[in-house]
Hints:
By secondary structure, this protein is an alpha+beta fold. The protein is built from 12 helices and 13 strands. The protein has 3 domains: 2-69, Winged helix-like DNA-binding domain superfamily/Winged helix DNA-binding domain (Arc Repressor Mutant, subunit A, Orthogonal Bundle); 111-248, Endonuclease, Chain A (2-Layer Sandwich), CATH 3.30.870; 271-325, Winged helix-like DNA-binding domain superfamily/Winged helix DNA-binding domain (Arc Repressor Mutant, subunit A), CATH 1.10.10.10. The strands form 3 sheets. The protein has an 8-stranded mixed β-sheet, with helices on both faces. A 3-stranded antiparallel β-sheet has the order 1-3-2. The chain has a two-stranded parallel ribbon with strand order 6-11.
Amino acid sequence: MFEAAGLGALEEAVYDLLLDTQxxxxxxxxxxxxxxxxxxxxxxERLEASGLVTRNAGTPQRYAPTPPxxxxxxxxxxxxxxLEQLRAHAVGLARRYWSAADRTDESSVVQVVRGAEAxxxxxxxxxxxxxxxxxIVDRPPYAGGVPRFNEEEIVALDRGVTYRCIYDxxxxxxxxxxxxxxxxxxxxxxxxTLTDPPVKLLVADAEVAILPLHLNEPSFHDCAIVRGSSxxxxxxxxxxxxxGRSVPLSGTVVVSPGAPGEADAEGSPSALERRIVRMLAxxxxxxxxxxxxxxxxxxxxxxxxxxxxxxxxxxxFQAGLQAARHGWL
Length: 329
């Protein structure tokens, strides 16, 4: 297990021995372990440097283990910090690489990546390197054929990167899709929906874009990565045009039916009613809303009757107009 912390089998064996005996001198360790003296000395030095072992004062010097719950936690945190520094350094190295590539070879503006796993890895790397904003048009096809929850987005949002995402309205009827989208929204994503968006796209910092080479396949294994060119500017402009035509999904609050405080002032929507109206406006069907809220379709109908009553509407179309007029959307 110590390999993950940069230590070897001998260090782990010495630490295990000290855990059982609590205190040993170098001579006692040498008797217990048939290792060359220089190898044992290096192992003790590395354990000391890692904070897993301390030396007691006195003659002869004796070695004692640091409590593992404290020592290993500190070691993990330090290792994590070192890896984060390496990640930050990699961003600068990548900029140097692509800057040099752009100067020496115009064809390097577009990079073709083949294979579903390679596509996923590059998508992750682009998000990890993002500094300001990531914009996404989410629609089929997906690498490997199956959409995956974007853990990298949650991490990037936490470090201050803005995400704006447009979702294909057809996806909102798929199981678990709404739940995933609202997890992103709760973490800070600005989400909208659009019927049959014409492109599938991810752009980071208006500098690098990734998109599939083909849209008419059940899954995609080949993509193009475009960097620092007028093509990226055009793709960013395309996203902004689609964003202006999309229906907002953001700003909703996850509330369970019957939750305390659900009832608001007379005529005002509860958080749950506002969420239902926004999902309807985004094109989500009653059955999908019922699955998301874990209620029956009959319950959704009762909520709709109450919503229409508050809005003074006799049809859903009229309710939509009134909801927009009163700021429910």
